[in-house]
Amino acid sequence: MNLTNCTRITEFILVGLPRVWGMESVMYASIFLLYILSLMGNGLIIMIVIKDHHLQKPMYFFLTNLSFKDIGHTTTFIPKMLVNYLSENNSICFFCCIIQLCFYFLFGVTEFFIIFLISLDRYVAICYPFRYATIMTSGVCLKLAIGAWFGGLSSVLYQQVLTANLPFCTSNVINHFYCDAGPVLKIAGGDTRLIEALGFLVAVVVVVSSLVFTLISYFFIVCTILRMPSTSRQQKAFSTCASHLVVVSLLYGSVFFVYLRPTIKNSSFSMTKYVSILYTFITPVLNPFIYTIRNNEVKDSVRRMIGRKVTGLRNI
């Protein structure tokens, strides 16, 4: 095919979610509900951490970053998907797709760095409790968070610039419910091997290395917990670690299935759409509950906030 005479596509058509006959309205209503729950849960965490000085600690600082990431990640594609469903028009403009692709992977890659920072914070808190305050200072935490976001941006920006300059001539139908790298590159013309190689390299370096360091952190955490003389402290520490590991299992399991593939052109993305639902819809909703449902400090903060609201209403 002569790509020099290519008429550049100005918009893409998104295939959308896997269809269940007669259940489309229920599926999209469920997605809308999950999106609202994600906004409320993650927004609540951000609000109470900012307002309650008792929660202005490294763990909650990193958790706030994770909540901001979840809000940004879901907002990148869910509102557009819902608007397309209501208008019965599954199109997205070319540059909107590239922007969506860029922000989606910015938030996605940054999540792995934040998950690692949370595990690092727990490692220092449990393994070096007496040095925790001097190691995890506010300045160090801020630098780590900035590094996580910068690492996410630098990991994906060059790939998206290359993707934006690819010719799209033969097809504009993306076999997904948002602009994902694999389905977009599958319909692209020209040589995509460099972009695929960069994407695979980022997936291996970022995903695998963050998983390895996270598991190493929890290995030392478990070893330290087992040496604790107090059974109650052991149970509390294990409870915290278990909730974090649930997030790690959901996130890494689904991402390994979807993104750790060396070639894209010959891949079918029908099955990956089902797996994508797990980490695009479910995980952002579960994160606030998994990290806080057994956390007494967060519960106490919510009670204090409600108590202040009730007192304020009584004084009116």
From TrEMBL:
Subcellular location: Cell membrane
Segments passing through the bilayer: 26-50, 92-118, 200-226, 238-260, 272-293
Top-rank lineage group of the source organism: Eukaryota
GO cellular component, one term: plasma membrane
Keyword Repeat: no
Boundaries of every G-protein coupled receptors family 1 profile domain copy: 41-291
Alphabetic keyword roster: Cell membrane, G-protein coupled receptor, Membrane, Olfaction, Receptor, Sensory transduction, Transducer, Transmembrane, Transmembrane helix
Membrane topology: Multi-pass membrane protein
InterPro entries per record: GPCR_Rhodpsn, GPCR_Rhodpsn_7TM, Olfact_rcpt, Olfact_rcpt_6C-like
GO molecular function: G protein-coupled receptor activity; olfactory receptor activity
Pfam families: 7tm_4 (PF13853)
SUPFAM superfamilies listed in its UniProt record: Family A G protein-coupled receptor-like
Xref: Gene3D superfamilies: Rhodopsin 7-helix transmembrane proteins
UniProt record similarity statement: Belongs to the G-protein coupled receptor 1 family.
Record-linked PANTHER family: OLFACTORY RECEPTOR (PTHR26454), OLFACTORY RECEPTOR 6X1 (PTHR26454:SF30)
Protein name per the record: Olfactory receptor
